[in-house]
Amino acid sequence: MKIRTLVADDEPSDRKALVEFLSADPEIELVAECENGRQAIAAFHKQDPHLLFLNVQMPELDGFEVVRAIGPSQLPATVFVTGYDRHWLHAFEMCRLDFLLKPLTQESLLPVLRRAKGHLGQPSAHSDRLLALLREVRNPAYQERLAIRSGGRIIFLKGTEIDWIQAEGNYVRLHAGKQSYLHRETMNVLHAKLDPRLFVRIHRSTIVSVEKIRELRPWPTGEYVVVMENGKELTLSRGYREQLPLLLGEAR
């Protein structure tokens, strides 16, 4: 079986070199080449790759924001591509994640590719490492408030006011106390802008404020009922079980 591979890098020369090196491997099938984080997210959902080469520094959404937007449990084996940065390299090494340093060469790719192939059959261990990486790497640009356009007005909503968020197509609905606001942004894009220490995705269509959770009730199915302070009951689906330590405050 071919290894469906997605490459995301905003530098055309680096992207071209990586594609050329990967194409020399008969096991690799290139299914998408992306030049920014938004393209990478869209291509991931469309192509369902087995292996992802992800540049750390990209416009709009960087590599870490792509990981947050898709979710560590959903990502395939991932190799990060980066220039020299001591903090990032330390984080990759601490979390035992594969990375490629620029400038790229075929010699440097071969051992990394070999290890990445070995991770294809270990999705649980890989998602744990990605979760650990997100805890190591903090983004100082998380949005502390959102500008909501409603009825010709612009309402500024602080993150501390939000209880939970639900997806509505290409929009999201923000629930804050007794009020709710429709916001023109997709779930994936908004999720990447929120501090993961404060907001946790518990379902593909639900994000909750950790500080507004009152109770967790386990179900025999492996899911949890998440009870908010206002009594609203939401579901932590089995596909997002790796988020449980974040909800419990054990992994921040």
Structure description:
- With 252 residues, this protein is of the alpha/beta class.
- The chain has helices at 12-23, 37-47, 63-70, 86-94, 106-118, 123-136, 187-193, 244-248, and strands at residues 3-8, 28-34, 51-55, 77-82, 99-101, 145-150, 153-158, 164-168, 171-176, 179-183, 199-203, 206-209, 213-218, 224-228, 233-236.
- Strands 2-1-3-4-5 form a five-stranded parallel sheet, with helices on both faces. Strands 10-9-8-12-11 form a five-stranded antiparallel sheet, with helices on one face.
- A hairpin with a 4-residue loop joins β14 and β15 (233-236).
- It is globular.
> What is the total number of structural domains?
2
CATH class of the largest domain: Alpha Beta
Number of helices: 8
Helicity level, as a percent range?
Answer: 25-40%
Task: Draw up the topology in text.
Elements lengths: L2 E6 L3 H12 L4 E7 L2 H11 L3 E5 L7 H8 L6 E6 L3 H9 L4 E3 L4 H13 L4 H14 L8 E6 L2 E6 L5 E5 L2 E6 L2 E5 L3 H7 L5 E5 L2 E4 L3 E6 L5 E5 L4 E4 L7 H5 L4
Parallel strand pairs: 1-2, 1-3, 3-4, 4-5
Antiparallel strand pairs: 6-7, 8-9, 8-12, 9-10, 11-12, 13-14, 14-15
Question: Would you summarize the structure shown here?
Answer:
31% of the residues lie in helices and 31% in strands. With 252 residues, the protein is of the alpha/beta class.
